[in-house]
Amino acid sequence: MKVLFIGGTGTISTAVSRLAIEKGIELYHLNRGQKAAPVAGVKTLIGDIHQPESLKKALEGQQFDVVVDWIAFKTDDIERDLMLFRGKVKQFIFISSASAYQKPVSRHIITESTPLYNPYWEYSRNKIACEDKLMAAYRDEDFPMTIVRPSHTYDHNLPLSIGSGATYTVPDRIKKGLPVVVHGDGTSLWVVTHSEDFARGFIGLLGNLQAIGHAFHITTDEVLTWNQIYETLADALGVKANVVHISSEFIAQVVPDMGPNLLGDKAHSVVFDNSKIKAFVPEFKAVIPFREGVRQALGWLEADENRLKINDTVNEDMDRILAAYGKLSG
Fold first, then answer.
1. Could you tell me the residue range of the domain that residue 176 belongs to?
2. Interatomic CA distance for residues 47 and 80, integer angstroms
3. What pTM value is reported for the model?
């Protein structure tokens, strides 16, 4: 099977690429060639997805069984993909987002038929619009699309409610006993999925013609509160976290850029019904619990001092929220 990833160097796509190569898939990445292929065995096609002539040259003479677009965020991206691959591919997979599901949720168990509606976050609304365009192409012209909606997926990037998970900023604060902000009272439910577990489900959709016309989320069955997530992180660091609970609405007032992600996603409890992906990919099973995944992530970060980066903006934003909250409560 010959597969093209548009993108392919992100958190999720790198894990999927590793597993694809292990499974003997002939895998190509289409990108600007500014980074070396993250996985041995991947072939790179150099082209800029936003430059038509560059794309034409990169794809000339190539035919693929499956194309996966990891970096389509707006309907213009989907229109471009339809133009490029209409009638030329057996399956096209669009990476959407579980944040597209109805917010606030009206039923606590989320299935693939849960309505798509997010008035808080433009990112999610754009993903919904992309899905709508692809579904219309499937219905009107039999375009062979499949939609995948990842939720909060991590590897080395720690899954946090506030702050950069790609740096050591929050672990550093926890180790120093500095306060860290958790939205709400920390009891809302959340699902964090290791990228290797996501890959196990995703790889079974590649070339799976029964999946055409369908949407799937791929998540672990483990459900945690945000308090448990931070407690597990602190335990892996060998300390106790100094957590301060502050409402999402207050956080959004102090740092408006955090509002859409919190109010449109993380502030809501999410529990996913994974029966559909298990029915289409019977071998899928998530096997990495968060208590193991977080230790792997910290181990990777702490193995190289160059990875122990501190994001000053994250510290400044968190301190600003805490200061404003202190004035309010004082």
1. 156-191+223-270+288-329
2. 14
3. 0.94
